[in-house]
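All the exercises in this workshop are built on plain-text protein records. The record below serves as our worked example for the rest of this section.
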Amino acid sequence: MKSLPARLSEEEIKTLYKLREIIVKFNSDELKVFSYVWDNISVGEILFERDLNQIHGVNKPILAAASLREKGVIERGEGCYNLARWLRPLRKKIGSFQDLRLLLDKLP
């Protein structure tokens, strides 16, 4: 995992705090959907539904996605779901959702 202080700007650290405030309010399905989109950045609609339903056990991934869109953490493209633009630079620096969780746990 990448370290927190040296690699991230003050603005990125603020974004991490904002994201943590949002994530702690996710239900189980929202967390699975967000982690999937975080790891994939952009995923086609059919693959999104199939993977989340069959692999991750989310019964109605579209409903969870709609909720996450309202919360501003994912976006809907043409036939796809994408990580929200404001999170993409952070995603590129941090890497996987597992690394994000470890980093969020380190925040004071």
Notes: The mean pLDDT is 92. The first helix runs from residue 10 to 23.
